[in-house]
Amino acid sequence: MGKLYGLIGHPVGHSMSPIMHNCEFRELGFSDHYQAFDLSPEQLEDGVEAMKMLDVQGFNVTIPHKVAIMPLLDEVEQEALEIGAVNTVYKSGGKFIGTNTDGRGYLMSLLSVIGESSLQEKSILVIGAGGAARAVAVSICRSGVASLTIANRTIEKAEELSSVCSKYAKTDAISLSEAETTLSSFDIVINTTSIGMSPHLNHTPLKLDHMKTGTVLSDLIYNPLETQWLKEGKQRGAVVDNGVSMFVEQGALAFEKWTDVAPNRQRMRRTVLKELGGQK
């Protein structure tokens, strides 16, 4: 019998992680299985204990447990501590250790668009200051960037995240209105919010009136595959990228952490796109 891996969150019925991982297990000839577990916040502590009893070898963590799970683990890696969230747990020496593959997954997807060598020359704007923004901003700054600015509806949250990242790069925090008027000064603009996701498909996180041609617009949303914001950006001459690559990369990094085997990322991507009913 193979090893058991999983996902915990609430809800989890919409997640494509099980089909992505299980298809890859089958393609690689593994008898392992990935199972989604719907745990309410009240069930989280008992759920982690159940994972140990079931001898689960590793699992992903999604909303709303990415922060709450941290004190329930035996150890948490430094990058995850800085991000303030765990999205992947692996077993080592009988211990459950928390890590975060969201930020590195995003970074790998971004580099595939802009090229490995150019990030350190870029001025980046991150829209949002929540969990996804923390993962993206911390990982980009740790990698090295010319400057990174956080724009958020609540400026205090943007300032707090800017402070966390400032040890690695030049950072700033601004309002959304200021971001819109100074948009031409940024090379890459990243939406980490849920604005534009179903059912609010016509909403956009930031007006693009002052965007310069050739700006990279990156949206972490992957359903729909092309948000209204990306559509508008493409019409204005932007290079656009949706959240499929980040989703695949963060999953692939978790897969490697658990199995010590590198999955076929293109195959995982095709699996996700097939489920979404479209192509990038």
Can you tell me the number of structural domains?
Answer: 2
Give me the CATH fold name of the largest domain. Rossmann fold
Helix-strand makeup class: alpha/beta
Share of β-strand residues? 15-25%
What does this structure look like?
The protein is an alpha/beta fold and 280 residues long. It has 2 domains: 4-100 and 245-276, Rossmann fold; 103-242, 3-Layer(aba) Sandwich (Rossmann fold), CATH 3.40.50.720. It contains 10 helices and 12 strands. The strands form 2 sheets. It has a 6-stranded mixed beta sheet. Strands 9-8-7-10-11-12 form a 6-stranded parallel beta sheet, with helices on both faces. Helix 5 (131-143) links the parallel strand 7 (123-127) and strand 8 (147-151). The protein is globular and about 55 Å long.
Relevant terms:
single chain; 280 residues; alpha/beta; Rossmann fold; six-stranded mixed sheet; six-stranded parallel sheet
SSE layout and pairing:
Elements lengths: L3 E6 L7 H11 L5 E6 L5 H10 L4 E4 L13 E2 L1 H6 L4 E5 L2 E5 L2 H13 L8 E5 L3 H13 L3 E5 L3 H11 L5 E4 L1 H6 L6 E4 L24 E4 L8 H8 L3 E3 L2 H16 L5 H12 L4
Parallel strand pairs: 1-2, 1-3, 4-6, 7-8, 7-10, 8-9, 10-11, 11-12
Antiparallel strand pairs: 3-5, 5-6
Helix pairs in contact: 1-10, 4-5, 4-9, 5-6, 9-10
GO biological process, one term: chorismate biosynthetic process
GO molecular function, one term: shikimate 3-dehydrogenase (NADP+) activity
InterPro entries: Aminoacid_DH-like_N_sf, NAD(P)-bd_dom_sf, SDH_C, Shikimate_DH, Shikimate_DH-bd_N, Shikimate_DH_fam, Shikm_DH/Glu-tRNA_Rdtase
